[in-house]
Amino acid sequence: MTKKIFVTDTILRDAHQSLLATRMRTEDMLPICEKLDKVGYWSLEVWGGATFDACVRFLKEDPWERLRQLRAALPNTRLQMLLRGQNLLGYRHYSDDVVKAFVAKAALNGIDVFRIFDAMNDVRNLRVAIEAVKAAGKHAQGTIAYTVSPVHTVEAFVAQAKQMEAMGCDSVAIKDMAGLLTPFAAGELVKALKAEQSLPVFIHSHDTAGLAAMCQLKAVENGADHIDTAISSFAWGTSHPGTESMVAALKGSEFDTGLDLELLQEIGLYFYAVRKKYHQFESEFTSVDTRVQVNQVPGGMISNLANQLKEQGALNRMGEVLAEIPRVRKDLGYPPLVTPTSQIVGTQAFFNVLAGERYKTITNEVKLYLTGGYGKAPGQVDEKLRRQAIGNEELIDVRPADLLKPEMTKLRDEIGALAKSEEDVLTYAMFPDIGRKFLEERAAGTLAPEPLLPIPEPGAVAKASGEGVPTEFVIDVHGESYRVDITVWASRPRASATSTCPSTACRRRWCSSRSTNSSVAASASAPRPANRATSAPPCRATSSMCWSRKAMWSRPVRRC
Q1: What count of other Cβ atoms lies within 10 Å of the Cβ of residue 290?
Q2: What are the pLDDT digits (tens) for 463-493?
Q3: Four-point Cα dihedral 513, 519, 520, 525, nearest 10
Q4: How is residue 358 annotated by DSSP?
Q5: Which tens digits make up the pLDDT trace of 299-344?
C-alpha cells in the first residue's frame, strides 16, 4: 500500500522568520517563483505570522501588495498563511467584525489555506476565524500549539482536535513551534489523532533540538498526511527540516512525495545566494540547541530576541533570560510559547532578570493574562502572583472578544484619508502606530527600507564588538520601543525604563503612579479600559505605563 506524503514549504514565511528575523524582501522572492510553482507542493506558506509586521515596520513594503504579487507569480500552487485566531496578525484580541473583514480580504487577495491557532489552545478564540474562512470558501486548518507540561497530554490534544473538527475545520496541524516534539511522542500523538478524528494531519516542527526530521518520519509512519519543510539553504536549526532531505528520505518508499529533487536543488542554490544578502540578521542562537527541551523558546522568538540584544550589545544576558522563561511559564499556568504568549512570557522574564528580583515589575500584558484577557490558561496560575498583579480585580470567564464592540467603523474614522482601501484600514488595525506611520510615509513618498550592510569580502576580519556590561537596552515588544537603563547603586543594580511612542501623531510621555508592592508597572501596549474590553487606543502612548529615566523600584513615579 502506498501513501503519498504532501509537502508545504515554509521558505517564503517561517523559514526566514526563524533564521533572519523575517527580513526577506519581496524582490528576492519573485524571481524564483516560476520554479517554486513547478515543484508540485501541496502549498507554499507565504504570509501571516510576523511577515505582516516586518513588511510594515522594517521593509516598508505593503504586505497586501506582496500577497497579490505572489498570487500572480504562483498561479498553480496553494498559498497558505498563519493566522493567530482572534489576534489575527497583531498582539491583542480584535472584535469579530475585524476578524471577518481581515479573513475576507486575505482570501480575496490570494490566500487559499488558513492555518489558525490560539496561543492558549482555547478553541473559543478560533471559532469566528474558522467561520470566516469557510464563508470565503477556503481551507480552514485548525491548529494544536504543541508544548510540553503536566497539563498538555495526548488526551488533551486529541480533545482539542475533535472540537476543531466539529467547528468545521478541513484539517488539523500539530504546530511544534519550539522544537519540543520527540520522535516517539510525535508518533504517539499522530496515531491517537488518526484514531479519534477524521481530518488529515499536518506536522509543523522546528528543528531547534535537531529532532524534527526524525519526528516527521515517525509521524508519517503513524499516519500523518502532510509535512512542513524548508528549502535546505534556509533549513534546520530554528527553522524546519530541509525539503530536499525529506524528499530524498521518502523517495522510493511507500511515502514517496513525488517531488523533483533536482528542481528543488536548483531552488536551494538560489536561496543560498539570497541568504548572504541578509547576513546582518544572522544569529548564533538559530543553530541546533538542545537547551530548547528545557527553556522551550520558539525559533522565531530566539531569532528576534537575539537580534535585538545584539543591536544593544547585550547578548551576554541571553542565558539568564532563557533560564527564567520556563519559571515564568510555570507561574502563568503553562501557556504554549507562541505569539503573543511567547512575548508576554519572554518580556516578563527579561524584566525579572534586569531587576534582580522576580516580579518587581509586572507587565500589563501579564496582568491582562492573569485576568483571563487572552483566554483560559491551560493550567493553574500562581495565585500569589495573581493577587500581587491584579488584587481583587474581576476575572474574565467568557470568550474575551465577547466583551469587544465592533471596531471597523471606528478604525476607518481614525485613519481617515490615509487609507486608500479597506486593506489599508486593516493594516492600521493590526499595528496602529507603525501602520499609521507607514501610510503617512507612503502618502509623502518617503518609504525607505532599513539599510542592508554590504556582504563582507571573503577572508575579511570582523571588527571586535566591544561588548561589555551594558547599561542601557532598547527592546521592542508588541510595536513599542522601550529603553531600559541599568544604574549600579551600592551593591546591586537598579533598573528603569522609558516607553517611547513611535507614532508621529503623539510624542507625549505618560507615566502612572500605579504600582505593585512599591514597584513600577511596565507595559508594551495599552491597559484594558474600565469596561474590561481588550481593545487598544490608536496611540498606545496615551495610556501606556512608563518610567522616568532614573526611577528606582522602591520609588513611585508621579503622573506627568
Answers
A1: 11
A2: 544 444 444 444 444 444 444 444 433 344 4
A3: -120
A4: T
A5: 556 666 676 667 767 678 888 888 888 899 999 999 998 878 888 8
Q: Which three cell numbers, joined as nine digits, stand for 58?
A: 522594517
What kind and span of H or E run contains 70?
helix 63-73
* HEC profile of 334-355: CCCCCCCHHHHHHHHHHHHHHH
Give yes or no for residue 532 having a pLDDT over 90. no
Mean pLDDT over 35-45 rounds to 98
Quote the CA–CA distance of 164 and 298 in Å, as a whole number: 24
CA nearest 270: which of 32, 9, 27?
A: 32
Cα separation, 191 vs 179, in Å, equals 19
Whose cell is 550589545? That residue is: 313
- Identify the residue whose cell numbers are 511507500: 254
Phi and psi (nearest 5°) for 123?
Answer: -65, -15
The span from the CA of 117 to the CA of 257, in Å, is 27
Displacement of CA 135 from its chain's centroid (Å) = 26
Q: Which residues contact 424 (CB under 8 A, 6 or more apart)?
A: 415, 418, 439
Identify any residues that bridge with 227 across adjacent strands, giving them in sequence order: 7, 203
Distance CA 415, CA 411 (A): 6
Grid cell locating 487: 544604574
Q: What is the full DSSP assignment across 26-50?
A: GGGTGGGHHHHHHH--SEEEEEETT
CA distance 256 to 237: 25
Long-range CB contact pairs, 439-445, < 8 A, 24+: 439/415, 440/504, 441/60, 442/62, 443/418
Largest Cα–Cα distance in the chain? 73
DSSP symbols for 245-311: HHHHHHTTSTT-----HHHHHHHHHHHHHHHHHTGGG--GGGS--TTHHHH---HHHHHHHHHHHHH
Predicted confidence (pLDDT) per residue in 140-168, tens digit: 999 999 999 999 999 999 999 999 999 99
Q: How many whole angstroms separate alpha carbon 31 and alpha carbon 342?
A: 34
Enter the DSSP assignment of 363: B
Grid cell 530524498 in the structure block, residue = 248
Query: Which SS3 state, helix, strand or coil, does residue 539 take?
Result: coil
Any bridge partners for residue 493, and if so which?
488
> Residue 142: enclosing H or E segment and its boundaries?
strand 139-145
Q: In what order do the strands lie in the sheet with 492-500?
A: 472-477, 480-489, 492-500
114-119 average pLDDT score: 96
Helices (H), 110-229: 127-135, 154-166, 183-196, 212-221
Using alpha carbons only, give the angle 265, 266, 270 rounded to the nearest 5 degrees.
110
Please report which helix (H) or strand (E) contains residue 434, including its range: helix 432-444
Give the model's pLDDT for residue 538.
Answer: 36
Parallel/antiparallel/unpaired status of strands 492-500 and 480-489: antiparallel
